[in-house]
């Protein structure tokens, strides 16, 4: 998978990961992929719901050393 932009949202609490993700995805072209790193455990549900409601594609997520990683394709 090609990642076009990486967003470091580690250490931020809700709603900041969503706010920063929205800003970052607005800088991408349709079809590009944003990788988001977060330590907020609520980010999984938040980002999944936000991507769906915003017309973006939630590709996958992984957890690595207490860091949640998400991949979202811009719609």
Automatic annotation (TrEMBL):
Cross-referenced Pfam families: TusA (PF01206)
GO molecular function, one term: transferase activity
Family to which the UniProt record says this protein belongs: Belongs to the sulfur carrier protein TusA family.
Keyword Transferase attributed: yes
Every UPF0033 domain range: 7-31
Keywords: Transferase
Keyword Transferase (UniProt): yes
Domain of life: Bacteria
InterPro entries cross-referenced by the UniProt entry: TusA-like, TusA-like_sf
Protein name, as recorded: Sulfurtransferase TusA family protein
């Amino acid at each position: 998978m090609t990642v076009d932009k990486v967003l470091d949202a580690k250490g931020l609490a809700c709603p900041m990961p969503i706010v920063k993700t929205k800003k970052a995805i607005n800088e991408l072209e349709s079809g590009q992929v944003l990788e988001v790193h977060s330590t907020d455990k609520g980010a999984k549900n938040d980002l999944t719901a936000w991507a769906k409601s915003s017309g973006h594609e939630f590709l996958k997520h992984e957890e690595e050393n207490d860091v949640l990683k998400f991949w979202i394709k811009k719609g």
